[in-house]
């Protein structure tokens, strides 16, 4: 019990009644469409659903609130959304409400004992609410008083670094820019964001090797690729519209290699719901070669592939692109030398993939050079997440597969504007360039001290070195590592503020005082003085475009994110600052003007964001590595991962089910993996089960032990599954209690959510 509130940090751990079936051999098809419509109709009604779905990802409409996959230049007339986009919309545009009446009936203690699914399904937040010190119930508060309260708390800090400003990746460029500007004007760089837990490893690796922390491919490249490697990613669930792009590659004669400990249904076969064949036919086979790698052994596997390619190259030049290597890269010799450190046998054993399959991949890669590598959390969320990605870059550099059509890097982003938020200045690192542009344009001095990222700000709050926590979206408590430690950290704060659309656990596990500031969602009409406003977002491939909602807002008391940020800043400075925060928060055109002035890449934002939008500059596309050492792209000698596993231990990856968006639980099914009505499951290899005397649906507890601290997640059902021996999979956020806050990727500080060493114990 902390803060006198007996709130539950994780909610109930009881079972919901599992129904098991065989894992699916294909993704989407009729079931995808049916499920999509079921969710929207149930939450939004038929008329509202059909109106909104027709405008999702269309040029004059709004950007899907789901993932960051780009829209085709000519969107499909039928529907440019997927099952999970429809679910994201249903979740946001639900007609259910969490209003003052709801919150006066249910205390935070009661709500914290609901599951995340039940909490999320209670509806949209409708008015600003305060949880006063010592109280168990939220009560209404005016916007003005909430802004004053925040300003007051911020003024009471002895140092601006005692405040933390989190961002989740759904905020628009305009909101994120204004927020970042205010935080700097306030005087700190404590801007952790969801990227820290997500693609930070990609940003660091790509920045160091290629000079830009983003991918290089455009959507059109998928049509022209000869080989697409999909690693550590489950597009059938998390980026379903990517399957259409993969299908196109296949139809154009391309090949797909998937590298994943699981044979994910979406990578096996795709029945395109936008085509008649997707309903009645057998669909398109996607994966040609599946390399079923052991968790976190991608470097071993890639090294072996590169070694075999190097041997072929020696015999018959032409496997590697030596012109490319000598013109554009640095470090080739050291990479070749590094390959000699490990024998083929050793690498083969470590990665656990049959050699015959690896040879097929090598044979394919040897003769092709239009190669794209796509990846997501399966590569980034490990201790060596940065090196995983550097090894991918090595392969692309050897093959000269950069800066030409059909080739390049493709880190597939998560949240729909996570990349844009970064581009407009949400980062805990200091950018001297950005600081001097702010100084020049707005005439104030941004702070020059590095800020804290996600893991370090949790520690700061835990150590009582930070006292005020403000979140622009997201569900910090449930998304971060080490839920119990994070709960204690938040509860140590005097004030926690959540700018949110939906109720989540971060509204229940709070500082002494807590505020909920409800905001407009993507799909909602944002009007000011009778004029409709639009905002802009950047997709996973660096294209910036407009988004304009159309639905009636969930409540007439909602404010837009820029208005809220402007309101907080205005109350804090109370007229004593060079920036007119209130006006800026109301006028997105003015914000865009400032973005254009301060961030040169966004020049033309106001005009060029129209229609299908414009691409931000990308040096890799032009093979310009002038900002890197020697002006060259960098090869890297990557180390093998170092897992010291005892006989009784497993490596656990925490993954998403088909029915969730991060901590938002749409439903209790994971259709493609054959799970119905249950989230408390652990996927385990049959041999491991046998060895430990476990039967299907036995109940187990999971334990991790790092630095002599034992963390436990209780009550999971064992599911026999096609997963490498010694590996386990279970869902996030139920298993976040097991992830130690102080174990994270070198350089990127991304928590090790995909390689947690655990033991299992039969209950
Ligand atoms: N519907 C829906 N869409 C989403 C999200 C969502 O929750 N729901 N989340 C969004 C966000 S923020 C993100 S970041 C993305 C996440 O998208 P993904 O990264 O696809 O999400 P995960 O479920 O974490 O899947 C990780 C995949 O990597 C594999 N994997 C795990 N460990 C390893 C490994 O060591 N090596 C290899 N090769 N593979 C491994 C797993 O088997 C799994 O297939 O999706 C975005 N889109
Ligand atoms: N163990 C484990 N942990 C992980 C991961 C993992 O794979 N395994 N994945 C990590 C990854 S990749 C990510 S990105 C993070 C996600 O971390 P977050 O981004 O913090 O979490 P979400 O669940 O996406 O946040 C959902 C909440 O955002 C709010 N919201 C939704 N739309 C809007 C909006 O338009 N505006 C505002 N202001 N609020 C909105 C709603 O209140 C909703 O409840 O989690 C990370 N945590
Ligand atoms: Mo993410």
UniProtKB/TrEMBL annotation:
A single GO molecular-function term is: molybdopterin cofactor binding
- Give the signal peptide, or none: none
Q: Does the keyword Transport apply?
A: no
Domain Molybdopterin dinucleotide-binding spans what residues? 650-754
**GO terms classed as biological process:** cellular respiration
| Pfam families in UniProt | Molybdopterin, Molydop_binding
Domain Molybdopterin oxidoreductase, by residue range, is 124-501
Keywords, sorted A to Z? Iron, Iron-sulfur, Metal-binding
Lineage top rank: taxon: Bacteria
Quote the cellular component terms of the Gene Ontology held in the record.
membrane
The record's annotation in SUPFAM superfamilies points to:
ADC-like, Formate dehydrogenase/DMSO reductase, domains 1-3
Q: What InterPro entries does its record include?
A: Asp_de-COase-like_dom_sf (IPR009010), MopB_CT_YdeP (IPR037951), MoPterin_dinucl-bd_dom (IPR006657), Mopterin_OxRdtase (IPR006656), Mopterin_OxRdtse_a_bac (IPR010046), Prok_molybdopt-oxidoreductase (IPR050123)
Identification of the protein by name: FdhF/YdeP family oxidoreductase
